[in-house]
Amino acid sequence: MDESLETVLVAFDDERGVGTITMNRPDALNALNGQLRDDIIAGLESLEERNANADGVALRAVVLEGAGEKAFCAGADIGGFSSESAGGSSARSHYDVIRDFPAPVIAKIDGYCLGGGLETALACDFRLASEDSTFGFPEVNLGILPGAGGVQYVEKLAGPSVAKELAMFGNHISAERAGDEGLVNHVYADNEFEDEVDDFVTELAGQAPLAVQAIKKSAAMAVQTGLEEGIEYDRQLFAELLETEDHAEGAAAFGEDREPEFEGK
Ligand code: HXC
């Protein structure tokens, strides 16, 4: 299944169960206008539908990337801000949809990752960057703040000093520094970027899918709640996973000294 929305390309790799959403406004460095925000949601929903219609879990991971040579995403489209740019309406924003998406979403960052683009990447489960990528919150230069939780996310990942430095100065930082601060999972040399991302995604997509989805839920719970409630939540997830065919398959494969074949059941 490959489909083309106005500002997003959607692809699905049947072999690995990997969806790809490409933000496709390269002439505007993939800046987020209303259409692009809507199309990201529509693209993710079409991947989710495919998943729901499959026998078991077919969709194991989604890669989110930017078209063109220069940018993952240069932020909200400066041509027209509103509170909706930050997801401020009754409908779920693309940030919420990514964050709540059942399968893990990987931001594949090659170039500028700024403002709402960085917040989009932060809503993803993983951030993989090429070494020439740059990161920043330039909103302060426009007299606003990162409106979709950028300071909140960076504060949790890298602490308050880094969050305030990024947001108050509005400067770009290198991929290397973003990696050192824990804002991205891995930084790869440009000539190895495609292969390294592919390997990462392939390995993730080969993990037991229901366990991966439960871990995503657990991690989301961990930032919302206290330790005791979080541990209780994990116990429930654990009990559910114990009943799955994938768990039986994983245990059998271990006993038989072979690779497990997980089916998401
Ligand atoms: C609309 C944008 C854009 C943006 C770039 N473009 N960023 N259009 N919104 N955020 C357009 C430029 O106007 C230009 O169009 C084309 O993309 C190429 O950009 P250049 O500036 O010519 O490229 P370059 O000189 O390489 O500079 C790249 C850049 C710069 C450093 C990334 O474009 C820049 O500073 N952009 C703004 C980044 C920004 O402030 N983002 C945060 C937005 S606020 P033309 O037609 O001239 O070729 C935000 C708030 C979120 O995200 C809060 C709510 C969630």
From TrEMBL:
The keyword Cell membrane does not apply. GO terms for molecular function: hydro-lyase activity. Gene3D superfamilies: 2-enoyl-CoA Hydratase, Chain A, domain 1 (3.90.226.10), Lyase 2-enoyl-coa Hydratase, Chain A, domain 2 (1.10.12.10). InterPro entries: ClpP/crotonase-like_dom_sf (IPR029045), Enoyl-CoA_hyd/isom_CS (IPR018376), Enoyl-CoA_hydra/iso (IPR001753), Enoyl-CoA_hydra_C (IPR014748). GO terms for biological process: fatty acid beta-oxidation. Pfam families: ECH_1 (PF00378). Keywords: Lyase. The keyword Lyase applies. PROSITE patterns: ENOYL_COA_HYDRATASE. Belongs to the enoyl-CoA hydratase/isomerase family. This is Enoyl-CoA hydratase/isomerase family protein. It comes from Natrinema zhouii.
